[in-house]
Design a protein that fits this description.
This protein is α/β, with parallel strands linked by helices. Helices cover 50% and strands 12% of the residues. A hairpin with a 4-residue loop joins strand 4 and strand 5. The longest helix has 22 residues. The protein is globular. About 15% of the residues have low confidence.
């Protein structure tokens, strides 16, 4: 009986009786009512956050609209005009003339054309409904839009049903009349064109035959030469693992070392420098210095590109009027106006090492926020677009949470627990060197007792490298040699820190490519078992498109292979290395932040321990835009 009652309630909710519906829903057919049930909610609100009208046809779980505003609309990710969160899908339309958002929330799969048609119809009807009383959007507290919304849905549903109706098939006579003879000559083409068209295949075949003959000749000439194949090094013996092989690969035990005071001082000088360098670092602020902002030639090219933009109307009078408004301002921006300007800015972003996908999405987001807006007085379209792009990039790069590692470590010390940081990334990006920089920073700026943990048990010389940094920093090192489980070593280091009163544990991991699934599973296990306070992805400032692939797959691997499916752990922040080698091509920072939504905690600006800074957002944006 309970099952029957539940089914009856579900049937009544999806196909209610006409007399039991509210007045605004009466008169709908059962099919129209079923179509309406596919949409969960509809919201209309201003850019300032004022909700003008909303309706929920099905109760929405949680607060998906809050997520949409915080994670998409405010983060300059609205170029696609669609998003997905758990079981809910979002589609929206932005009307810049009134600064209004129209958002539809739905579940399952709906046709994009249907959703776009519904949004356009509702936006048009709403603007005509409140055109006189709207003003600046602050004078309206409630809008009675229920009946108008229902009428819009009826029209859109009717158009969708008509579009789904099958078209009548052509009869045999009409199909035969419109058919063409494929073997015969085509009508409307001259004889020479037909001859050249028929000869294309033969020419291609001749060229292919010539190419094969030429390649065959090269193969015949070079067939006698043989290349020497380099013998691969045996790491595990393919199942023949023995103690002898392990001893040969272990470079951390029973090796002579020069640990004299003179040798240690020489190594320390190479990393720290003299006392004057250290004193200057202690007095310096933790921010990146101003970078170059492009050349004058690029500015001239930009002016020429804007000047060469063709007029969008053929009338000479309208073209001249448009040019004057571009100088004096008060012009309504359209897609045709923004296309050449955004195209130029997108190319400029990619030349500054911003990934192509990120540059495209950022340009589309700016386009969406500017179409239909009026430029300010005496403000050109180019300056308006540049200001919007600058604001969007500053919003992206500005951290949404605290990135003060020193303050967090001091707070953990006062709370009586050990603060743990895990460094991860691909091979050769400088994880060990920058880990030593962070250790130097925490020790000298905060007076913290730091412990370094060597969890790179694969790369030959990794433990020895950390031993060198440990001696130069006068910081203890926790290591267990090679061939051990990194997660167990990290767990032992944290327990050792608790027992011996260390404040911070810095965990170094082996470099690995983002497509290596077994190594990524091992990394996810290390993070899941030890639950560090901060997971830092170490990446190079030199990479462009590859930055997206690296940071995305590392973050996805940590999330997918996490032991706790309900609260998966991903990347918490990023450390950008080799920042001093890229000059004005600092776009990798923008790409990584855009993809992950996580902030850049530090940037490495050299080889010495003092070459560690915090990123200054405005200077980076100024450098990218030139």
């Amino acid at each position: 009986q309970a099952i029957i009652a539940r089914k009856r309630k579900t049937r009544q909710r999806l196909f209610p009786r006409t007399d039991s519906l509210p007045p605004r829903h009466r008169g709908c057919s059962r099919r129209a009512q079923a179509a309406m049930a596919m949409i969960d909610a509809f919201y209309i609100f201003t850019k300032g956050g004022l909700l003008l009208w909303s309706t929920q046809l099905v109760k929405v779980k949680g607060n998906p609209l809050d997520w949409l505003i915080k994670e998409v609309l405010l983060e300059e990710r609205m170029g696609d005009a669609s998003a997905k969160k758990d079981e809910y899908g979002f589609k929206w339309k932005l009307v810049n003339e009134m600064d209004l958002f129209f958002v539809v929330v739905y579940q399952g799969i709906l046709q994009i054309a249907y959703l776009e048609g519904l949004l356009s119809a509702v936006a048009k009807e709403f603007l005509s409904h409140v055109a006189d009383a709207f003003g600046n959007g602050l004078s309206i507290k409630h809008v009675d839009f229920d009946a108008a919304f229902l009428e819009c849905r009826r029209k859109v549903d009717k158009e969708a049903q008509e579009a789904r109706r099958p078209k009548p098939q052509q009869n045999f006579a009409a199909a035969k009349k419109g058919a063409t003879d494929k073997n015969g000559p085509e009508k409307g083409l001259p004889a020479s064109a037909q001859k050249s068209k028929s000869g294309e295949g033969g020419d291609a075949e001749d060229d292919e035959a010539k190419g094969k003959a030429k390649n065959g000749k090269k193969d015949a000439d070079g067939g006698e030469k043989t290349k020497k194949v380099k013998q691969a090094r045996t790491w595990d013996g393919e199942g023949k693992y023995s103690k002898k092989i392990a001893d040969e690969l272990d470079f951390s035990k029973n090796k002579p070392r020069d640990e004299s005071a003179a040798a240690t001082a020489a190594q320390k000088a190479s990393f720290v420098g003299d006392s004057e360098d250290e004193e200057n670092w202690n007095k310096a602020e933790d921010e990146v210095e101003s970078l170059s902002s492009g050349s004058e030639s690029e500015a001239e090219e930009k002016k020429e590109a804007v000047k060469s933009k063709p007029g969008r109307v053929n009338s000479l009078f309208k073209t001249l009027t448009r040019s004057v408004k571009n100088i004096t301002g008060d012009a309504v921006l359209s897609d045709e106006d923004l296309e050449p300007i955004l195209s130029y800015f997108k190319t400029a972003l990619m030349s500054r090492n911003v990934a192509a996908d990120v540059a495209t999405q950022l340009a589309e987001s700016v386009r969406t926020s500017l179409v239909g807006k009026r430029t300010a007085r005496f403000a050109s379209m180019t300056s308006t677009v540049k200001a919007a792009l600058q604001e969007a990039m500053e919003t992206l790069l500005t951290p949404k949470k605290s990135v003060d590692v020193l303050r967090a470590a001091l707070a953990a010390k006062h709370a009586g627990r050990v603060y743990t940081i895990v460094f991860l990334g691909v091979n050769g990006v400088g994880k060990s060197t920058n880990l030593a920089k962070v250790a130097y920073y925490l020790k000298h700026k905060g007076g913290l007792d730091v412990l370094i943990c060597a969890c790179d048990t694969f790369r030959a010389g990794a433990v020895e490298q950390l031993k060198t940094h440990s001696r130069c920093l006068d910081v203890p090192l926790y290591e267990r040699g090679y061939g051990k489980d990194p997660s167990d070593i990290a767990k032992g280091a944290i327990q050792h820190a608790k027992t011996n009163g260390h404040d911070v544990v810095l965990v170094d991991t082996a470099g690995r490519m983002q497509d290596n699934e077994p190594l990524m599973r091992a990394l996810a296990k290390l993070v899941a078992v030890n639950q560090p306070d901060l997971v830092l992805f170490v990446g190079e400032a030199l990479v462009g498109n590859d930055a997206i692939d690296q940071v995305t797959k590392f973050n996805r691997a940590l999330t997918d292979y996490s032991h706790d499916r309900r609260n998966p752990r991903g990347i918490d922040g990023m450390l950008l290395t080799k920042y001093d080698t890229v000059d004005d091509k600092v776009g990798a920072a923008l790409s990584m932040v855009y993809v992950t939504g996580q902030p850049i905690v530090f940037v490495g600006t050299g080889q010495k321990y003092t070459h560690l800074r915090k990123m200054q957002v405005k200077e980076v944006v100024k450098t990218i835009l030139g």
